[in-house]
Amino acid sequence: VAVRKCAGVWETEAMASVxxxxxxxxxxxxSSGCCxxxxxxxxxxxxxxxxxxxxxDLVLNACVTPGKRLTKYVQDALKDVHEEVSSRYxxxxxVIPECLEGCRILDLGxxxxxxxxxxxxxxxxxxxxxxVDMTDGQIQVAKKFIDHHTQRFGFSKPNVDFLxxxxxxxxxxxxxxxxxxxxxSNCVVxxxxxxxxxxxxxxxxxxxxxxxxxxxIYADRELPDAVRTHKVLWGECLGGALLWNEFVDIAKKVxxxxxxxVAASKVPVENEELQQIIGDCKFVxxxxxxxxxxxxxxxxxxxxxxxxxxxxxxxxxxFDINYTFNEGETVVVDEETAAILTSSRFADEFTIQSLGxxxxxxxERPPREPQSAATxxxxxxxxxxxxxxxxxxxxCSVQSKGCC
Length: 404
Description:
Blueprint lengths: L36 H15 L20 H8 L3 H5 L16 E5 L5 H10 L4 E6 L2 H9 L1 H7 L7 E5 L15 E7 L8 H11 E14 L5 H4 L2 H5 L6 E2 H11 L5 E7 L5 H7 L4 E9 L10 E5 L9 E3 L5 E3 L3 E4 L1 H9 L6 E5 L22 H9 L19
Parallel strand pairs: 1-2, 1-4, 2-3, 4-5, 5-6
Antiparallel strand pairs: 5-8, 7-8, 9-12, 9-13, 10-11
């Protein structure tokens, strides 16, 4: 597993020379994994397992991962996570989709387990959360507090477990096809030397109608070797960043529906030495949702009405940047969105009528049409910078240096 999380760095001491931080023989990295995977995995395990001991060890300000403002019940779940687990959390901006009760969730790069424990409360005793990480030290910290959180949440038995392994090879640790409702990941995919393999494995283990909801870092151009082989930039989730449109292509080739952009923020790089290496390269942190829609699901432009039953989202459900569903309001959705709502865990939360089968009544208020679809996180990050509301303060329970 390319482990936890995008706020980390390779060296916690004073900045050493550029040459000391190069990956050397690892070579340039691509989505196809043409580097020496073992070198990347071992470096990541060494960093997260030995060099970082807590949030205060972070050096660069990477507290930019976007997140929607948290509802009270989500905030309460975060507060219930043990302090030692939270203190070893190296990311910011939680990946918390809606409609979680009873779900089976897989966390790719679960680290010390903060997201897993928070989600284990939200899915309830009938749901289950599995965390996967390749670093033994992180896994041991996470497992240490299983009984604590089981008692804290008032459950009769644990609904969370942690497995040590690689997110590119989930089958090696016994994770079967079509076994999860939801896969999450928080700034971890970029740390993997083989992004395509990660997305393929996520798709494989998801049930039909399942979702991958994750945050990651993307680049606006092909990165030079000086960036891709720099250890600090790799640890900060920049060196391994994909082009955002390359990610979109990979996701669709794997089989996912068109990626749905949820939020995005610019990634600031304030360190002068790193600025010189990065040059004109720009980075953005973005949250996407990907759905596994079966081939036989009807795809018809439809009217949908949100029933307002999802816990914590009674008045409105912000599905992505194109669709916000207000309780009781009729919204026209495109063919793919209708297929997603019909086949996913959201099916019971909406009244859905195909426009091909339903004629409008004379007294009906015209349905609201959505804005045109957008998947470019750089476009969205510009709008956020001009006055949007993508704030990490809503998602941080442990703030890193310079955060918020």
